Amino acid sequence: MLRVLTACQAVAAGVVAARLSRGRTRPAPLVPGASGPPPQPVSVVIPARDEEARIEGCLRPLLADPHVSEVIVVDDESRDGTARLAARLGATVVPGMPLPDGWVGKQWALHQGVSAASGPIVVLLDADTRPKPGLCAELAALVGTSGRAPGRLVSAAPRFVCGGTAEQALHASFLAGLVYRFGPVGPAAAPDRLLVNGQCMAFRKEPLLRAGAFERVRGNLTDDVALGRLLARDGWTVAFRDAGALLEVDMHDSAAGVWREWGRSISLRDVTTGGALAADLAVVWLTLALPPLRLATGRPTPLDLGLLGQRLLLLAALRRSYARPGAGLALSPLLDALTAVRLTWSVLRPARTWRGRGYARPPVRRGAPPRRPARSAAR
Question: How many CB atoms lie within 10 A of CB 25?
Fold first, then answer.
């Protein structure tokens, strides 16, 4: 039995090493001013549900950015003062219509906001993002000026803001698990293993609406990855770039928030086949969780020690992912077994609630979704 486990661990270690090696070909990070003004007007769309406490930090820099033509906030039936604050600051507020059956709230809000946008280039941002001058111009340059199909979707990875040591430690351990499963940000991936970041995406409006994209992923809680993989299968170019110098995100208020909120979707359960989920669990348990557990018992193997060394080297790369890297980042390997537990829980007990709404389980995923929507969302 021990020999079988060792053989499986060696295979998983080889898979992880191959994924990490792709970091050598990752594109350069985005920097402000590299591309000049946007080629066409840019509309920014922000879906917001009960975001009064944090949306101001997102809106103020956008409203002061000369390269942004309009800022649209879709008020998704907020129960606080989100809409009043956004309007007072100068954003265009679109009152969200009641949620139709079969739709998840964020996709419905995005569909409404993108449809209302006047600019040919659209940037989507979450309310907890903190954009810096130059972000929208660089994203617009990557999207390009051609409106012909297939299109181009660009997503950006931010620097994360963590409020304490425990929060950063758990967040960094979760992030290491994603890197072990999918590789670093930047290099191209097959559609079924592709990642994007829904906190920041850009595209041309008309091709996306012609594709009926939001309607086709209307029931997915992991909406961003569902959208990116759908468009990639349609032939779109999907790019994921490091924009840490231009974007920060303050997602959670505690380690408990990381465990609860990010943990609910970390398995990507509703966009991943059962075989791929099993492989992800094997990789994380064998290469991320098992080495520190064996070290704690005083019985690590040479392969365990090599994997621990690899994990420590990853810390240096992850420093660039945090606005203020600190002790939490260094302590994150101690929580890797907890990351494996949370991933397993997310696979076996996927959450179907978010922001006070509950959603029915979608149909079991069997192969790729249809390439054409039954009814165009552009209508």
Answer: 10
**Backbone phi and psi for residue 95, each to the nearest 5 degrees, phi listed first:** -65, 125
Q: What are the chain's domains? A: 31-164+183-254 (3.90.550.10)
CA angle 363, 224, 370 (to 5 degrees): 45
The answer to whether 136 touches 124, Cβ cutoff 8 Å, is no
Tell me the mean pLDDT in the region 259-275.
94
Q: How far apart are the first and last CA of the chain?
A: 59
Q: Tell me the C-alpha distance between 263 and 344, whole Å.
A: 10
CA–CA separation, 62 vs 91, rounded Å?
A: 9
DSSP string, 82-96: HHHHHHHHTPEEEEP
Q: What is the pLDDT of residue 124?
A: 98
**In the structure, how many helices (H) and strands (E) does the chain have?**
15, 12
Helix (H, G, I), strand (E, B) or coil at 362: coil
How far apart are alpha carbons 211 and 369 in whole angstroms?
13
Phi, psi of 332 (to 5 degrees): -60, -35
**3, 191, 290, 298, 300 from 295: Cα distances, Å:** 18, 37, 9, 5, 5
Residue 143 · residue 154 · CB < 8 Å: yes
pLDDT score at 375: 38
User: What residues pair up with 239 in beta bridges, in sequence order?
Assistant: 154
Nearest C-alpha neighbor of 131 from the set 51, 60, 31: 60
Instruction: Answer whether 73's CB lies under 8 Å from 82's CB.
Output: yes
Query: Is-above-0.85 flag for pTM?
Result: yes
Residue type, position 65, single letter: D
Q: Which two tokens stand for residue 286?
A: 């064998």
Helix ranges (H only) for the chain are 2-21, 56-63, 82-89, 105-116, 135-143, 165-182, 205-210, 213-216, 223-233, 255-257, 274-283, 290-297, 302-318, 327-331, 336-348
